């Protein structure tokens, strides 16, 4: 089974129509961190960052 990376989660959220700023606002993760995740610069984020992104993705899918 393929595990989603934080970068995958952000890409999926963007595909669902969220902007980087919206993701940042809804998760409390700085937009600069979202950008660095997408660029592959930030490859080892904090667990709290990953959990926040996972929660938003879950909410977006369940809606």
From TrEMBL:
CDD domains: HTH_XRE. It comes from Arsenophonus nasoniae (son-killer infecting Nasonia vitripennis). Residues 9-57 form the HTH cro/C1-type domain. Signal peptide: none annotated. This is Helix-turn-helix domain-containing protein. InterPro entries: Cro/C1-type_HTH, Lambda_DNA-bd_dom_sf. Pfam families: HTH_3 (PF01381). It comes from the Bacteria. One of its GO terms (molecular function) is DNA binding.
């Amino acid at each position: 089974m393929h595990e989603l990376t934080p970068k995958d989660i952000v890409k999926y959220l963007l595909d669902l129509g969220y902007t980087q700023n919206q993701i940042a606002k809804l998760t409390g993760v700085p937009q600069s961190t979202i950008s660095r995740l997408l660029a592959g610069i930030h490859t080892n984020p904090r667990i709290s960052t990953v959990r926040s992104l996972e929660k938003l993705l879950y909410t977006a899918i369940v809606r």
